[in-house]
Amino acid sequence: MTIAFIHEEIPTEQVEQREKVLSSLTDAVRDLVDATIRSTVADDELDAVRAEVEALAARLRAAQLPGPAGVRYNSEGRSWNWGNAVVGRGNAVAPPVDITHDEFGSAYAELTLGAAYEGPPGMVHGGVSALLLDQIMGETASGFKRLTMTGTLTLRYRRPLPLGPVRLEAQIDRESGRKITVEARIGVPGEDAAVEATGLFLIPSWAPLDESAASWSRSAEG
Ligand SMILES: CCCCCCCCCCCCCCCC(=O)SCCNC(=O)CCNC(=O)[C@H](O)C(C)(C)COP(=O)(O)OP(=O)(O)OC[C@H]1O[C@@H](n2cnc3c(N)ncnc32)[C@H](O)[C@@H]1OP(=O)(O)O
């Protein structure tokens, strides 16, 4: 099965304007999620809020895509993936992460994980650590110059990771043909890693080894 990217000829300026407005709605929805989890208001107030939230969802549903957002690109090389589960600018379920890459095959990100990402009491859910690690490792393997997919991800959970500020780091360890091995970690900034990861990322046999000459490039694909 091939992975299809959608060519949509929207000028970059308009994409960026839309992304800005959408991101700010997403931040507000994330805040709503946190407020919902932690709210202690009375039941009838919860009920009143539910009615208002349903009305807001109906307004957004007035014009909808027929399915998921996909990954789109224009002929200026701008791409956008607003539904992505980790870096989608329109996805309030995605943790609020911005990944920074350097030209030497390394990447890092710092973010704060709140109540929506809890697993053990007060701690980050192990699946959320895996989600974040998979994305930063996949982006590192790809370097936004080739399509890579997770083949095998091995995680070692060394110590519980408290909710709050976290730092992720990833770098390419080695590569051979279509196989790229990436090492990564997540932990409290300045402390030993809570979770260490090794991943084998594969350039699928149906994809080119190098797509940097393709008509689209990075925003934060996944
Ligand atoms: C400008 C352009 C930019 C474009 C791009 C931007 C992207 C920017 C960032 C992306 C960031 C994403 C971050 C999230 C990443 C996900 O979440 S990806 C979703 C999760 N992963 C999947 O769904 C993958 C599902 N699996 C598959 O589709 C296929 O099995 C694969 C992985 C593509 C491999 O299929 P294939 O290419 O047909 O390879 P195949 O011939 O079976 O095997 C080739 C070799 O790899 C080995 N191999 C195959 N599968 C595995 C495996 N799972 N584990 C270990 N070894 C394996 C084989 O043993 C074989 O080895 P050799 O015999 O050659 O030594």
Give a description of the structure.
There is one protein chain. The protein is of the alpha+beta class and 222 residues long. The chain has a domain at 96-202: Roll (Thiol Ester Dehydrase, Chain A), CATH 3.10.129.10. It is 28% helix and 25% strand. It is built from 3 helices and 9 strands. The chain has helices at residues 12-38, 43-60, 126-142, and strands spanning 6-7, 72-73, 79-80, 100-101, 106-113, 149-157, 164-176, 179-187, 195-202. The longest helix is centred in the first third of the chain and has 27 residues, at 12-38. The radius of gyration is 19 Å and the shape is flat. 25% of the residues are buried. Palmitoyl-CoA (PKZ) binds next to helix 3, strand 6 and strand 9. Palmitoyl-CoA is lined by residues 134-135, 138-139, 142, 144-152, 200, 202, 204-205, 211-212, 214, 217, 221-222.
